[in-house]
Records
---
Amino acid sequence: MIENNGSFDILFHRALIIDGTGTAGRIGDVAFAGDRIAAVGDLAGARARQDIDADGLVLAPGFIDVHTHDDALAIGGSAMEPKVTQGVTTVVTGNCGISLAPLVLHRSPPAPLDLLGGQESYRYARFADYLAELDARPPAVNVAPMVGHTTLRVATMDTLDRPARPAEIKAMSRLLEESLEAGAIGFSTGLYYPLARAAPTEEVIELLAVVSRLRAVYTTHMRDEEEGVEESLRESFDAAMRANVPLIISHHKCMGIENHGRSVSTLKLIDQARATQTVGLDAYPYVAGSTVLMGAMVKKSSRVLITWSKPHPEIRGEDLSDIARKWDCSIEDAIERLVPAGAIYFHMSEEDVRRILGHPATMIGSDGLPHDQHPHPRLWGTFPRVLGHYARDLQLFSLEEAVRKMTGLPATTFKLRDRGLIAPGGYADVVLFDATTIADTATFDVPIQQAAGIKAVFVNGRAAVLDGKVEPGRSGRVLRRVA
Ligand SMILES: [Zn+2]
C-alpha cells in the first residue's frame, strides 16, 4: 500500500483508524500527500516530512457539523475556535431558512435573521459575493453553504405575514437559482418562524423545483415541533416527494412536556417515508434548545435562560423567572422588555433525545449560536459529548457508529464529494482524539470551554489544532455544490 515511499507530507503511526463507514476500527498508519490522504494501512518504513505518533489514539475523518449558524462567523479568516477544538473540519451553514446571502439590509435584521449577526453582516446582493469573500479569506474549516427561504422572502417581499405572490415566487426562484449556480449546496426553510410562517406548502414546493433541477438538498426547521410534529413531518415529506428532492429534518425534537415520548411515532413516520424517498435528520445531544426569545416557546419550556438581550446587555445566563421576580413583573412583561433577545429553552425529554440520536439516519448537528453572549453549551461541546457521554459512557451506540453519524453519513447526505471517510484519495480532513478522555466541558453555567481529548485536527492536509492548541493556519475551503 506504500505508493510514494519517502515523499509523504504527514504520517500518522499506529492509530486506531475509525474510517467513517461504521465498520470496526483497526490499528494502522495513515499518510497525507498535499491536501489528500495518500495511503492507509501498514506503512512501516515509509518516510514523511512530519511523523505523528498516534499510538493509543483514534484517527477519524474530521467531523461535519451539519447544522450551524456560522455564516458570519466564517467570514474574515476566522479561527472557528468553537468548531476546530471539537474536531469539526466542515460546517454546513444557511440552516433554518436563514442565510446571510443574497440580501442587503438597510435596517436591523428582524428575528430570526439577527441570530446570524447585525445589519452590517447582511451586505451580499449575490450569493457569489458571499462565497468570494470566504474564498479570499478562508476560515479554519470548510464551509458547505446553503441558502435560506426566509432570506429570500425578506429580499423580495414588502410584507411577510402573507403567502408570496406569483411575481415574488419568480423573483425568489431566480435568486435561489443564482445561489445554487454559484455553489450553494442546498436550500433551507424555517417555517416555524414568524417571517416564514405565512408561507404555504405550495410556495415551498414551487421553490423546490429549482432545488430539484440543480440536484441540491432541502433541509427544514419544520412548522411545528410540538403537538403538530407529525403533521409537519407529513408536510415536509409531501413537499420533498412532489419536488423530488432529498429531505433533511433539522434538529428533530418533540417539544413541550405533553409531547414527550412522541419520538416513537415521529421516527416511525420517518422510517415509513424512507422506504419511498430520501430522508435524513439531525439532532444535538441536549434536552434544551436555543433560539431567539419568543413567548410561544417559553410556554413549552420548564426553564428558560437568557443568552443575550439588546436592551439589557448586562443580562446573560440568567433565568427568565428570576428576572421577572427581580423586576417584579409577569413573565410576559419581562419578555417584552428583553426583546430582541435570545434564550435557552429546556423543553425536551432525555428519553426522546436518546431515541432520536440512536436512529441510524440521525446525523449530528450542533445548532450552535456563535454570537450569543452566554451561548448554549452545544456550541463548544456537541461532538465530544456524543463521543464521550453518549457513546463511551452510556453506550447508546458504538464509537464507530458515533463517528459515522458525524462523517460518512453527512458527507453522503449533503453530497460532499471526497469528504467524510479515511480512504486513499479523499481529502485530508482528520481528527486525532483520545477515546478514553474525550468529553464536553461546556455547561449551561459556563458554556465557553474547550472540550477535552482532542489532540490534533487537520483540514485539507494542514494543522488546525496540534497538541490540543489552535494553530494559526486557515486552510478551510468553500465546498460548492457538485452537479
Ligand atoms: Zn432551527
---
Amino acid sequence: MRSFVRYVLGVLVTVLILCAGITTLWGWAWGLGLLALFMGAVAARDAWKLQTLHHWLQEQQLSPGYQPGRTWEQVFGRLHSLERRIDENQARRQEAIERFQQVLTLLPSGIVILDQTHRILWCNPAAESHLQVHLEQDRGQSLPYLIRQTEFQNFLDRKPAPDHRCILHRRSQQDISLALQLIPYSAQERMLVTQDITQWERDEKVRRDFVANVSHELRTPLTVLGGFIETLQNSGPLPLATRERIFQTMETQTDRMRRLVEELLSLSRLESQTGVAPFTSIPLSALLSQMLQMASQLSQGQHTLDTQGHFDRRTLLGIEAELVSAFGNLVANAVRYTPPGGQITLSWREEGGEGVFSVQDTGIGISAEHIPRLTERFYRVDQARSRDTGGTGLGLSIVKQIALHHDLTLTIDSQPDKGSTFALRFPAHRLGLPENDPA
Ligand SMILES: Nc1ncnc2c1ncn2[C@@H]1O[C@H](COP(=O)(O)OP(=O)(O)OP(=O)(O)O)[C@@H](O)[C@H]1O
Ligand SMILES: [Mg+2]
C-alpha cells in the first residue's frame, strides 16, 4: 500500500513539475492542456482495464493483448489467487461430497431421509433393497403409503429420538427382518436407519433351539436317575433282581448322558476349528479294518458285513481321529438302523481322481423329506426309535463338521424300507500317494 502511495505521489509530482515547466515556457494554456491530456490518458487506460476486468470476471479469461500495469497487475493478481483458492475449495468440497456419497452407497445399513410428512427425500441402495422402494420413482412418495404395516406407521408417528427403534418383518419374495431407528436430523427432516437382522434372528433361533434340545435330552435320564435314587432311599430292602435291574437302568442312563456330553464337546471343538485340517497320511486299509471290527462288535453277529474296492495301498490325508469318528458314525448308524439279518457294505472307489468311501445298508431307509435335515443338530427321523437305541441325533452333525474341515462332500441316498448309502467324497488333494510308491 505504501509503495502504491509513493508511486501515485511520484507520478503526480512529475506531471505537476512538467506542467509548471511548460506553463513557464509557453504559458497557462499549454500547461493546462498537457495536464488535461495526461488526465484523459489515465482515465482511458483505467476504462480499458476495467473493461478487461469485466470481461475476465464474465468469461473467466483475460482479453487477448492484455498488458498488466503496476496497480492493475496487483488487483488482477489478487483476484486471480482468490479465484484459484475458490476453485481449490470447491474441488475439495466436491471430492468430500463424492466420497461421502460413495460411503453411503456402500454402507450395509439403509438410510432414508424423510421430510416431516414422511415423504422420501433421498435414500441409499441398501435402504432401497431393505424397504423395496426405488428412489428414482418413489422420491417424494409417502413411505407409510408404500409400506402399509400398522407397526411401521405407528413407529413413524412417534416422536423421533435416538433410542427410538422397532423390528419390522417384511414378507415378500424373500422374508426379511429389519431393525429400524428414527433419528431427528434437522427441524424439517428425519433420518430412518434400517439394518438387516434376518441372519442374526436365525442364529438366535438356532441357539435357543440348541439350548432347549440339550436341556430336553438331559432331563429324561436325570428324571429316571432321580426316580431310582428316591426308590432306593425310601423303600426297604429290595429283591436282588429288582436292584440289579435298577442299577442296570441307572448305568444306561448315565452312559447316555456321558455320550451326549462327549458328543457335544466334540461338536463344539469341531465347530470352533478354523482353517483346513492338516495333511497327515493315514493308511486306508488300517482305517477300514478298524471300521469293520467296530461294525462286527456293534452288530454282534446280527448282520452280514463286507467290504468292496481296492484300498490296500491308498492313503488319506487328514486328521486320523476325525476321520475315524466320521467313518465310525456312518458305520454305527448303518448297524443301528438295519434290522437283524440285513447287510452292511463298506466300500472304496476312485473316479476322476477323487475317492469315495461309502457305507451301504439294507436297513429301514429314510424318506426324501428328511434327508436335507439329517445333519442338523439333534435331528432324528423317528425321535422315539432313535432315543430307544441310544441315539442323540448329533452323529451326522459331527460327520458334517469333519467333512467341512477336510473339504469332503457328504452325500446321502436312501429309500424307505430298502436301505441307505452314506458316502464321503475325498477330493484329489486329500488322497495320498499309494503306500510305498516313489513320488
Ligand atoms: N443308515 C441309516 N438308516 C436310516 N436312518 C438313518 C441312518 N443314519 C441316520 N439315520 C437317521 O438320521 C438321524 C440322525 O442320525 P445321527 O447319526 O445324527 O443321530 P443318531 O444316530 O440318532 O444319534 P447319535 O448322535 O448317537 O449318532 C437318525 O436319528 C436316523 O433317524
Ligand atoms: Mg448316529
